[in-house]
Every structure is written in C-alpha cells, then in structure tokens.
Amino acid sequence: MYTQAMDLMAREAKPKVVKSAEDLQREEAFEARIDAGDFIEAKDWMPDHYRKTLVRQISQHAHSEIVGMLPEGNWITRAPTLKRKAILLAKVQDEGGHGLYLYAAAETLGTSRDEMTEALLSGKAKYSSIFNYPTLTWADIGVIGWLVDGAAIMNQVPLCRCSYAPYARAMIRVCREESFHQRQGYESLLTMMTHGTAAQKAMVQDAVNRWWWPSLMMFGPADKDSPNSEQSMRWGIKRVTNDQLRQKFVDATIPQAEILGVTVPDPALKWNAARDSYDFGEIDWAEFWRVVGGEGPCNRERLAARNKAWDDGAWVRDAALAHARKQAVKQEAA
Ligand code: BYC
After folding, report:
1. pLDDT in tens, 83-125
2. Whose CA is nearest to atom 43 of ligand 1?
3. DSSP category for residue 161
4. From its phi and psi, is residue 294 left (phi > 0), alpha (psi between -120 and 50) or beta?
5. Nearest C-alpha to atom 18 of ligand 1 is from which residue?
6. CB distance 252 to ligand 1 below 6 Å
7. Does residue 10 have a pLDDT over 70?
8. CA 239/CA 167 separation, integer angstroms
C-alpha cells in the first residue's frame, strides 16, 4: 500500500532495556535540568527516547515545510498581479528555507539528511495532513496564508521555548516569517472581500469552507488520542497540548472571520460565555486518519512531485560532488 506512515514496528513488543546505574544517574540529571527549565544543547547527554521524539517531530516538521511549497507553488504562474506573484514567490521560498533550518536542527541529533530524505520520498515519513488538499482557486492561496499559516503560528510560537535549543532557535526565525505569511494571506482576502465582485467574494467563502476543517486537523488528534503528547509535554518539547492550541486558534480566528465577512462551515460553533471561548463541532477524525495514512486527495501527487524534484536534481548533486572532489585534489596537490 502507498502510505505515508506504516509504523507497525513501533507497535511490536520491544525487548526490555536494562539501564546501568550510570545511565540512571544521567537520566535523573537530565530530568532535573528539564524540570528547572534548562535548554538542552546538541552535545548534552539526553535519553534515547527524547532524541528519537525530537528527530520524529523535527523531521516531520521539515517535510511539512518542503511539501507545503507544492500547493502554493501551483499558483505562482497564475497570481493575479505582479505584487501578489512577488509575495507568493517570497513565501514559497521562505517555506523552503524553513525546511532547511529544520533539517539542520534534526541533523544535530545524529540523523542524516539522506535518511530523512529517503523516509519522505519512500512514503515512510509523515508530513502535515493539510498539504494533501488541493488549491483549486486563487482564494485558496489567501486562505492558506490566513488559516494554515495562522494555525502554524499558533502551534509554533510555543516551540520557540522547546527544551531542545537548536529547534527552539530555528523556530524563532520560522515564526517571524510565518507571521508575514499569515498577514499577507489575510490582507489578500480582505482586499477580495472589500473590493471584489460577488463572484470573488463567493470564491473566498468557498475556499474557507474547504480549508476550515483541515486547518483544525493540523493540531493533531484530540489530547485523549494523542500518544506522544504526555511525554512531549513532560520533556518540554511541546508546551501546549493539541486541544488547547486548537481552541486558541478557533478563538483567535472567528473574530477575524467576522471582520472579513465570511463564515466557517460549523453549525455547532457558538460563543460560550462561561468558558470565555467558542464551542465548536466534532472534527471528522476518520478523514484525518485517512489523510495521515496516505489516502487524502493529493497524497500521491505530493509524493510524486517530491520524487520528481529529487530525480530532476540528480545532476546538480552530481556536479556539486564532482566539484568538491576536484577542489579536494587541488588542495592535496598544493
Ligand atoms: N498531519 O501524538 P500526536 C506549516 C501524527 S508546517 C499528519 O499528537 P505529536 C506550513 C503525529 O505525527 C506544519 N500527521 O503527535 C508549512 C503522530 O504520528 P507518529 C507542520 C499528524 O508529535 C508550509 C500521530 O499523528 N507543523 O505549518 O505529539 C506552508 C499522533 O499524534 C498530524 C509541525 O510539524 C497532522 N496534522 O503532535 C505553510 C509543527 N497531527 O509520529 C505552513 C511541529 C498529528 O507518532 N509538530 N500527526 O507516527 C508538532 O507540533 C507536533 O508534531 C504535532 C503532533 C502537533 C503536529
């Protein structure tokens, strides 16, 4: 089956690991540092599971950035004005840059770029479900900026305080750029909603209808169904839970929707004065897991595009290696 994540190995019974007294001591010291709010650097001792969790999350995040370039890249040649085209080009380039910072952060944990690339291209690795939906109209580009980047910022600002320092440092720059991405999307939608024709306004509403629920899915499964959250919260990798972030996102976004003059496709959405928050409807988790499992509308297309880019780039890698070899020979001779 063609799937993003067949992680059956993890579910198999693992052999019991016996820890030495020295390891137990190191683990205790590590936990004490985490409890004290210390940041962990690449050269510091860390438990295996902490390292693996970080490699998993950071590499998935990097893949999401790289795959995230595809739905938007689809509109670069069709942007309606030169200004919009320049903004979109800059944004898509930023996403590529984010992928690179994140791959570099993951490499500090001892994994190689080649391993991560192989996992993405073979379909073994996960990346965010959101990028498996198609961008059908120009309004989708504005809505991605507003909702998808908005959700990304909500999720990523707490990661600037992640206990693993190289990831936290990368996230500071990523978040600054995401903030521009979110604002350009909102501004583009505001322009369409205030100066656009009735057809353009309808196009924005249609895009919101299609992207709303997938955006809420970006935060991951409900806390009760999130196998990684508890440990990641305890280690300060995640600082806020999936459900808490999703709620914050809804609360921040609905007033923006009202200013735009669009509605979200959720009949259950209702202000709850007692909670000082919006109540909202149930996410279609069956759809979420289908998309995560490789059966979303564009999963195959996205992986095929990444594989094609890798194959098409073979001559660049070959040329760079040949150049490096030549330089090494020259240096040796000098
Ligand atoms: N899509 O135990 P859980 C961007 C997986 S980039 C696919 O809650 P965790 C942008 C999860 O990996 C957006 N899979 O996991 C880029 C886990 O599977 P494994 C990406 C998902 O890690 C370009 C399983 O479900 N952002 O915004 O504690 C242009 C159980 O979940 C999803 C990041 O990567 C999903 N939506 O929490 C524009 C941020 N959700 O690994 C925008 C960093 C969950 O056990 N990552 N899964 O097989 C995180 O904050 C966390 O990893 C998550 C999930 C909140 C995503």
Report:
1. 999 999 999 999 999 999 999 999 999 999 999 999 999 999 9
2. 61
3. G
4. left
5. 126
6. no
7. no
8. 13
